[in-house]
Amino acid sequence: MDNDEILSIDHDLNLIFPIINGKVSMAINRMMYRNFRKEGLDITPEQWTVLAFLWKEDGVAQQTLCNSTFKDKPSMTRLIDNLTKQGLVYRNASETDRRSNLIFLTDQGKAIKEKATNAIATTMESALAGIDEEGLRHVRSLLAAVFGNIQDALDNSSY
Predict the structure, then answer these.
(1) Do 124 and 75 share a structural domain?
(2) Which of 39, 59, 71, 134 stands 20 to 30 A from 96 (CA)?
(3) Is the dihedral of CA 42, 83, 78, 57 positive or negative?
(4) What confidence score (pLDDT) does residue 24 get?
């Protein structure tokens, strides 16, 4: 690598690192939280990720939720405990593996889907305002590549 390439990478890292570091994610989560409240929902963006998965596929193993939301077991246990206290989900022991809990939506958990979906739609409309389809495809492609690179590096790491 020559000096121009190094300077270019340094400059790009200064621009891109805050995005990768979570600024965008934190801002979107803050707006999601606000929009959930406007819809009368007392859920967090983290809880929404679990509910959204269950709205697509109800009655899944807790480990499946961990894998699909990139949460570790203690974090997922805490999330499910809180959703259970709120009356949105419940646990049932798996019939095929007693060590495994299956997570199901309650009627109340199913009933809030439309309000939560409205809150998410409002959030994403604001977040993506002025970005055309081509720009969105490009961003998705770049972020998928970054995610894939990180996953590969983690999978190939000896730590």
Answers:
(1) yes
(2) 71
(3) negative
(4) 84
Q: Are 111 and 76 within one domain?
A: yes
Gap between the Cα atoms of 66 and 131, Å rounded: 31
What's the CA gap between 155 and 159, in Å, rounded?
Answer: 9
For residues 151 and 145, give the distance between their C-alpha atoms in angstroms, rounded to a whole number. Answer: 10
The pTM score is 0.79
Number of domains in the chain: 2
Give the dihedral of Cα atoms 127, 129, 132, 134; nearest 10 deg.
-10
Q: Is the pLDDT of residue 16 over 80?
A: no
Q: What is the CA radius of gyration of the chain?
A: 19
Task: Give the end-to-end CA distance of the chain in Å, rounded to a whole number.
Answer: 28
Question: CATH number for the domain including 103?
Answer: 1.10.10.10
Question: How many residues belong to the chain?
Answer: 159
Q: Which domain holds residue 77?
A: 3-131
Tokens 């998928």: give the residue. Answer: 144
